[in-house]
Amino acid sequence: MKKHGHYCKVCGRYRANEKFSGKGHASHICKDCTKLPPEVKAEQETLNRLFNLPWHLSKAQKSWLKNRTQDRRPEVKALAQEQYDMRFGHRHQDMQLDDFDDFDDFDDLDEFDELDEDDEME
Ligand SMILES: [Zn+2]
Prior knowledge:
It is a single chain. The chain is mostly helical. It folds into 2 domains: 1-36, no CATH class; 37-88, no CATH class. It contains 5 helices and 2 strands. It has helices at 22-27, 31-34, 38-51, 59-68, 74-88; strands at 6-7, 14-15. Strands 1-2 form a two-stranded antiparallel ribbon. β1 (6-7) and β2 (14-15) form a beta hairpin. α3 runs parallel beside α5 and α4 (59-68) packs across α5 (74-88). The longest helix is centred in the middle third of the chain and has 15 residues, at 74-88. The protein is elongated. The chain binds zinc ion. Zinc ion (ZN) binds at residues 8, 10-11, 30, 32-33.
């Protein structure tokens, strides 16, 4: 008999096998968490997923994480933002050099006076 228990993806704990119903084993949700309202389960699961993200994200994980930073659930959003910033940092290099239009103050070229040719030669 295994002693390792079984991972619950909602509360994020390893729990004894008896804490899982047959169906719970398959869905990785313990008996306690099964009773939770669906939105709580979903949120907990999302938070656990955020906690357990690997350092190097696949493209899919990265876009999933990025979407979570827009999540309507404040806790999810905050944790996602934290995880995202940890990996990708603050983007200083997004500064834009768009104020360089002020360089049209060319000096007006003085018009050359036409030289009066005093023809003194006689
Ligand atoms: Zn659980």
